[in-house]
Amino acid sequence: MAEKMTGAEMVIQALTDQGVEHIFGYPGGAALPIYDAMFQQDFVQHILVRHEQGATHMAEGYARSTGKPGVVLVTSGPGATNAVTGLTDALMDSIPMVCITAQVPTTLIGSDAFQECDTVGITRSCTKYNYLVKRVEDLPRVMHEAFLIATTGRPGPVVVDIPKDVQFALGEYYKPDLDTLRHQSYHPQMDGDAAAIEAAVDLMLKAERPIFYTGGGVINAGPQASEHLRELAELTGFPVTSTLMGLGAFPASNPQWMGMLGMHGTYEANLAMHDCDVMINIGARFDDRITGRIDAFSPNSRKIHVDIDPSSINKVVRVDVPIIGDCERVLAEMVRVWRSKTNQPRTEAIAPWWAQIEKWRAVNSLGYKNSDTTIKPQYAIERLYEATKKQGKEVFITTEVGQHQMWAAQHFHFDKPNRWMTSGGLGTMGYGLPAAVGVQVAHPDALVIDIAGEASVQMTMQEISTAVQYRLPIKIFILNNERMGMVRQWQDLLHGSRYAHSYSESLPDFVKLAEAYGGKGIRCENPAELDAAIAEMLDYDGPVLFDVIVEKDENCLPMIPSGKPHNEIILPDTANIGDIIDEKGRQLV
Amino acid sequence: MNAHLQPTGSAYFLTQETQQSERHTLSVLVDNEPGILARVVGLFSARGYNIESLTVSETEHDKRLSRITVVVIATPKTLVQIKLQLERLVPVHKVHDLTAEGAYLERELALIKVNGTGDQRAETLRLADAFRAQIVDATVESFVFEVTGKPSKIDSFITLMQPLGLIEVVRTGLAAISRGPEGM
């Protein structure tokens, strides 16, 4: 006979059984029984956030940096609605997350009760799956099923909405057998089709201008997937590029690395995508930020697409060899099949291709004109990168969204997976600071830096208070140009440099603000003092808000404007970007 | 206002496909659980697919399974996406494109209320007999017919009833099943 416990205790018991050591949350009336149950145990540690959106991004940072699911606990009504942005972000970027939302008692559901909202209705389209648990008997099964669904297949957020009376109700706790979970309809396909993998390797063996185009799926498939990717790249000798979400799966220090591709990717990566004859897409989804103009996207290539989500295949770009499966397993199979056919890389056959790539690389598309008087944002990131290399610590980078995010992707280099946390799909300003908190909770001894913009960081600024409370020494590296830089850049490109509301007329004094929160504030505006100021930031044992005053009107280049193919990329030496885009292009996002 | 918008080949104009749209009947086997219909309908509206007809009812009570029959009009490329996106929903067991997979039957039921007095009454009854419409309610001045069959047959019957005093119509939407011995 199983032990009788309350629904609230079942929640904590299920979290314990799932090995959840940290949850991010904020209490409220409907969630009080769960908070009470949590108070009476030590295994699950709760991080009190300042806003529920912060909790969701913390859980994302935690999940992305560990491979484990991030767990959130919020109350009903506003607690749940505040979590919606983070849930959507996690869905777009395939981040495993379980979000427990409290609900008003079942007897009050539908009566417009205080702090009631239709949580399952609101979150239906921004979760992988969601539950309203109306009976305590279902609660143990639902809790475990939620973790199963969040973490397997294409990962994503799952909401479990638990009414207050169910939290109080007594029932029997059980651990369901995963095989008998009710959703017999849920069977993600893990192994790629053998014939398809064989066909893919055959294409690769004949390739003369091949390219690996890898994405966040490689990171999601676990560190082994990155190992297999490195092995396959070495075996084949092919060049590798990656999406924003996939950075770190392949080491940036490897000579086969071409940098990120896409709208702000390198010249060599984008031109190679355009001109390749065999494209091997592993765990990426042909996002519009990658493809640019679809009908001119890589026109002469045969395309191999590995994805765990069947609906990603042929959604945007028609491919020749689709392989549905987990990137780790498919990559391992590709390595095995390649080895069974040859033990030579295609060095000779693809030598002209590499020669072409080297010519593109020589363009130095990430170059910029440095200055002695103002700090260039690219320079600030380069110096930060150099300084962190000497730290002898694991380094984790999170970002907000905008120019600084793209510059970080271009100029900060990653040799390991799970070190780079950014909001790619949804593009959520305010992601980076709470994500850094989540990463630091998971890795207390690591160096965790949020590369931020002064506009984005103000969206979730209050979470510095969380960092101070839990002694999480995150570093917030603000590239302060007093502009919403990416908006300003697009206004330059598309709207005759009419800067409608893209500048900040009253910024806070970030140094004083940091001190008000109980952290440390540093400001730097002189390039000559930057290295010393970065060293001061890194040496400080506590949260630091670092305000770097940078060049105000720097554009983030290279850039493929919307509606243009890869080979019409704008390079840094282009004088007037306002003349490039025609009337049609102006309509695009 | 947006009349000047031209397709440019960007991802944001993907919906402007050059393929011809086709009418397909999909059969979707789902767990009968709260919110399942909202999930399916929400998917269609979120991704901009059009529903022509939708019928849902529990079909296997002990397994708590429901069958949703949905008629869509879409290009072949979008049809594939609709099927894959439906299969992505956790409570969806199977999706069959009956139109693409071979021979199948479609039936619909309609209740049709018609005004009928004097000479018209006889004419109404003659036509109803020809269409094998059952009289399920009658007063001295009206009938309610029950008609079952292909949607086109019901369309024809309704058209014929119009000049004779059609009052109102309710239709169940489509139920469809494949021919032959195999089940879904």
TrEMBL record, chain A:
EC numbers, comma separated: 2.2.1.6
Q: Which residues form the Thiamine pyrophosphate enzyme N-terminal TPP-binding domain?
A: 5-121
Q: Where is the Thiamine pyrophosphate enzyme TPP-binding domain?
A: 401-548
Cross-referenced SUPFAM superfamilies, in alphabetical order? DHS-like NAD/FAD-binding domain, Thiamin diphosphate-binding fold (THDP-binding)
InterPro entries on file: Acetolactate_synth_lsu, AHAS_TPP, DHS-like_NAD/FAD-binding_dom, THDP-binding, Thiamin_PyroP_enz_cen_dom, Thiamin_PyroP_enz_TPP-bd_dom, TPP_enz, TPP_enzyme_TPP-bd
State the CDD domains in the record. Answer: TPP_AHAS, TPP_PYR_POX_like
Its keywords, alphabetically, are: Amino-acid biosynthesis, Branched-chain amino acid biosynthesis, FAD, Flavoprotein, Magnesium, Metal-binding, Thiamine pyrophosphate, Transferase
Give the domain of life.
Answer: Bacteria
- Per UniProt, residues of the Thiamine pyrophosphate enzyme central domain are 197-333
A Pfam entry, by short name? TPP_enzyme_N
Protein family (similarity comment): Belongs to the TPP enzyme family.
* Catalytic activity, as annotated: 2 pyruvate + H(+) = (2S)-2-acetolactate + CO2
What does the entry give for GO biological process? isoleucine biosynthetic process; L-valine biosynthetic process
Q: What pathway does this protein act in?
A: Amino-acid biosynthesis; L-valine biosynthesis; L-valine from pyruvate: step 1/4; Amino-acid biosynthesis; L-isoleucine biosynthesis; L-isoleucine from 2-oxobutanoate: step 1/4
Q: What is the protein name given in its UniProt record?
A: Acetolactate synthase
Recall the GO molecular function terms of this protein's record.
acetolactate synthase activity; flavin adenine dinucleotide binding; magnesium ion binding; thiamine pyrophosphate binding
Free-text cofactor note: Binds 1 Mg(2+) ion per subunit. Binds 1 thiamine pyrophosphate per subunit.
Q: Which cofactor does it need?
A: Mg(2+); thiamine diphosphate
Give the UniProt entry's GO cellular component terms. acetolactate synthase complex
UniProtKB/TrEMBL annotation, chain B:
Pathway the protein acts in: Amino-acid biosynthesis; L-isoleucine biosynthesis; L-isoleucine from 2-oxobutanoate: step 1/4; Amino-acid biosynthesis; L-valine biosynthesis; L-valine from pyruvate: step 1/4
Whether Ion transport counts among this entry's keywords is: no
Give the UniProt keywords, A-Z. Answer: Amino-acid biosynthesis, Branched-chain amino acid biosynthesis, Transferase
In terms of CDD domains, this protein maps to: ACT_AHAS (cd04878)
Q: Which reaction does it catalyse?
A: 2 pyruvate + H(+) = (2S)-2-acetolactate + CO2
Membrane spanning stretches: none
So what EC number does this one have?
2.2.1.6
Single Gene Ontology MF annotation: acetolactate synthase activity
Would you say which domain of life the source belongs to? Bacteria
Domain ACT span(s) in chain numbering = 25-100
Q: Which GO terms describe its cellular component?
A: cytosol
A GO biological process held by the record = isoleucine biosynthetic process
One matching Pfam family is: ACT_AHAS_ss
State the Gene3D superfamilies in the record. Answer: 3.30.70.260, ACT-like. Chain A, domain 2 (3.30.70.1150)
What quaternary structure, including any partners, is listed in this protein's UniProt entry?
Dimer of large and small chains.
Q: Hey, which family's this protein in? A: Belongs to the acetolactate synthase small subunit family.
| Role description | Catalyzes the conversion of 2 pyruvate molecules into acetolactate in the first common step of the biosynthetic pathway of the branched-amino acids such as leucine, isoleucine, and valine.
> What NCBIfam families does UniProt report for this protein, alphabetically?
acolac_sm, PRK11895.1
Q: Write the protein's name.
A: Acetolactate synthase small subunit
